[in-house]
Design a protein that fits this description.
Layout: E1 8-15, E2 17-21, E3 26-28, E4 33-34, E5 38-42, E6 49-57, E7 64-67, E8 70-72, H1 78-88, E9 93-95, E10 100-102, E11 111-118, H2 128-143, H3 150-158, E12 172-176, E13 187-192, E14 201-205, H4 216-226, H5 228-250, H6 254-273, H7 284-300, E15 305-309, E16 315-319, H8 322-335, E17 346-348
Parallel strand pairs: 7-11
Antiparallel strand pairs: 1-6, 2-5, 3-4, 5-12, 6-11, 7-8, 9-10, 12-13, 14-16, 14-17, 15-16
Bound molecules: ligand 2P0.
């Protein structure tokens, strides 16, 4: 007689995060250990997030994964690392209603199916891997009843994608690079929760939703191998910026926050340009957005808006409050009038501004 089959499922959602002090460059490619600390803001999960459902069943012959409805190979190593680390920590699970009893050693033999959706463009430089891998680790942990704290989970998510370790927490988050060779102290800590500085409004101007040409992983590898500027950035510039940024966040000092954020975005892109062959993530529209913000901030005498760009041309704009955000939207729409059928190219961090 065949055994009765069952499926156990868990679903989770994780937002993406935007770095204000950037991670760029690894000292260990396999463990994903960075060359410097970084600091980010985690977005509100209603807007840019990944939703993942994981299922385990004795009827699954292998581990499989679908991203936005399309099956992807799990053999890449990174998903496997996360899966392996969570499996190691799996505990007994009992679901009386369904009559399911799983012993912790059973998890070694049970295969999983993973389905993940992003509610925003994948791999367009909007940190889709951060949301996706954080969500995967979190949801697998839920399914397998793991009991680790968030620091430990962030360290596992880091092995899926560096920036993912920061999406385990909401609010303002620091990824401490750590000193150990085994990565045991390279994990995220929360600097302040989401309510700490809720005047800030984040607006994401999607300049292009096309997939980027140079992946972050290969781009930062080339930078580590060829950019003399990266050493200076990682050893001399970032450590003092991290301290200043922590203070700015603690004191809700928008002026310092904005100056540091813009300067660090610009240095990250300078390091990309210093790579051989050079990497161009921003385009003319990105440069025009920078000029618009710089001129405005200069004319006000004190910064109103901070900009930051990741591995793509899209602008992340952080306004000091809702009033400034409304003015910013007006200026953006005036300078870049939406084309017909193009209104969705303005994805807002705070939708209510439009209504
Ligand atoms: C960041 N970025 O701090 C920086 C700024 C892009 C620019 O983290 O190889 O996708 O998976 O560790 O995390 C993008 O890098 O790269 C990134 P991997 P990841 O957000």
């Amino acid at each position: 007689a065949t055994e009765p089959q069952w499926v156990l499922m868990a679903t989770g959602r994780s937002p993406t995060n935007i770095a204000v002090i950037k991670y760029w460059g690894k000292r260990d490619e396999t463990l994903i250990l960075p060359v410097n600390d970084s600091i980010s803001v985690t977005l509100d999960p209603d807007h840019l997030s990944a939703t993942t459902t994981v299922a385990a069943s004795p009827s699954f012959p292998s581990d499989r994964m679908w991203l936005n409805g399309k099956e992807i190979a799990l053999s890449g190593g990174r998903f496997q690392s996360c899966l392996r680390e969570i499996r190691k920590r799996a505990r007994d699970v009992e679901d009386e209603k369904k009559g399911i009893k799983i012993k912790k050693e059973d998890w070694e033999k049970l295969h999983v199916h993973i389905a993940s959706y992003n509610n925003f463009p994948t791999a367009a430089g909007l940190a889709s891997s951060a949301a996706g891998l954080a969500c995967l680790v979190f949801t697998l942990g839920k399914l397998m009843n793991v009991n680790e704290d968030y620091g430990e989970l962030s360290s596992i998510a880091r092995q899926g994608s560096g920036s993912a370790c920061r999406s385990i927490y909401g609010g303002f988050v620091k990824w401490c690079m750590g000193k150990n060779d085994d990565g045991s102290d390279s994990m995220a800590v929360q600097l302040a929760d989401e309510s700490h500085w809720d005047d800030l409004v984040i607006i994401i101007a999607v300049v292009s939703s096309k997939q980027k040409e140079t992946s972050s992983t290969s781009g930062m590898r080339d930078t580590v191998e060829t950019s003399p500027l990266l050493q200076y950035r990682a050893q001399t510039v970032v450590p003092s910026r991290i301290l200043k940024m922590e203070d700015a966040i603690k004191n809700r000092d928008f002026e310092s926050f904005a100056r540091l954020t813009c300067a660090d975005s610009n240095q990250f892109h300078a390091v990309c340009l210093d790579t051989s062959p050079p990497i161009f993530y921003m385009n003319d529209t990105s440069h025009r957005i920078i000029s618009l913000v710089e001129k405005w901030n200069h004319s006000e005498g004190t910064p109103q808006v901070a900009y930051t760009f990741d591995a793509g041309p899209n602008a992340v704009l952080i306004a000091r409050n809702r009033k400034t955000a409304t003015l910013l939207l007006q200026r953006l729409l005036y300078t870049f009038p939406p084309q017909k059928n193009d209104l969705d190219s303005y994805m807002l961090g705070d939708k209510s501004i439009l209504s």
